Amino acid sequence: MRPSLGLSAVSAAVAWSAPALAPVVPAVAAALGVPRRVEGETVTLTFDDGPHPRGTPAVLDRLQAAGAHATFFLIGEQVQRDRGLAREIADRGHAIAVHGYRHRLALRVAPRALRRDLDRAHEVIAAATGAEPRLYRPPFGVFSLALVAEVRRRGWEPLLWTHWGRDWARDATPESVAGLVLDGLTAGDVILLHDADDYSEPGSWRATVGALDLVLPRLTARGLLRRGVRI
Hints:
Layout: H1 2-17, H2 26-32, E1 44-48, H3 55-66, E2 71-74, H4 76-81, H5 83-91, E3 95-98, H6 111-129, E4 135-136, H7 145-154, E5 157-158, E6 163-164, H8 174-182, E7 190-194, H9 205-221
Parallel strand pairs: 1-2, 1-7, 2-3, 4-5, 6-7
């Protein structure tokens, strides 16, 4: 009986953690029904982890100067610290999405605690921004089976990404971030960047802002910049 129980435990663990591969294995994302692309003639710029008192305003100013619109996946606890800045994101015409109340790995959170986190995140973000967010991306892009089911039950739309700049890393530079973002980029792709450093390398938002100075003109020249369209 013991070997059988051991095999069952391993199988359960694999089933629980398999969705975590979705950000790096497109086939897993497809099997879960979690999109990595937004079909259309432009790309979708997304920013995680904000709002941030310095990173977010700098990103907003770059976007406004380029006439670009993006999707901001907000963290509830950061919104509570600066509700006015969260509202400014919405007032500037950007899409508001949920990234959770706390920035925690879903695989380490019990289903009941996940539900509470999503409830609290939605309540805080909606109240601060005046928006009704229906788009969701988990911290680290990591889903559990329970989280996938809960997001679907709420009628939310999950979204991952096709390109990320690794702008959270210690060695990130504007040039390295821009290079990763632009490599093989085509219409419909989703770009993941971060306008905050509360859960990453301190000051990493500066690499993001510098990268936008390189990326936005290229997107404009190629006709890939999303303007005035909210998802």
